[in-house]
């Protein structure tokens, strides 16, 4: 790492496929003596082809190549890079996907430049970036009552609510069908106790989307349950 007027200069790479955002990002860091933007690309593979000796990768969640946050973060981590998410934070599923992959935090594109710069500075030094969006990604939307599902219950919910039949959920999880049914009854009970009843499969799907466990459907995505 180079030495700047504030000490160590952290090398930053940006994965962003909107040119205007990339230009604004570069402008933000231009007068920061301890942060150097050394590469920008619309995909993770494109960034890694440019440079690998980075201190931090800054990643937009929704890219036009259709890649998932999880696969992108895993690709960056395989290259030895930690990641900070830089996003509009409009999709709880994408945030949860990134959280599960182990990013250092989330910062909104709408935040003031000083907030974004400080988040980059903290993450580039290996620190966690605490934010409301990050807490929501890990713990669920703070405006929704947490139902406290266990990891096994979440696995059953994600499979069943996404459209799988009970017997197939049992096969995929290695559980007995009756055990899956018991889990579903308990999941419904927890949602009801939280004031968010889910008596039908469609209701369970809606709750899973609300809580960020399943992706929001595209407008053209017509689901029959």
From TrEMBL:
- SUPFAM superfamilies (alphabetical): C-terminal effector domain of the bipartite response regulators, CheY-like
* Claim: Amino-acid biosynthesis is one of the keywords in the record: no
Q: Does the keyword Phosphoprotein apply?
A: yes
- Share an example GO biological-process annotation for this protein: phosphorelay signal transduction system
Put simply, this protein is called Response regulator transcription factor
Positions of modified residues (4-aspartylphosphate): 60
Which part of the chain is the Response regulatory domain? 11-124
The UniProt keyword set, sorted, is:
DNA-binding, Phosphoprotein
Write the lineage as a comma-separated list: Bacteria, Bacillati, Actinomycetota, Actinomycetes, Mycobacteriales
Q: What are the GO MF terms of this UniProt record?
A: DNA binding
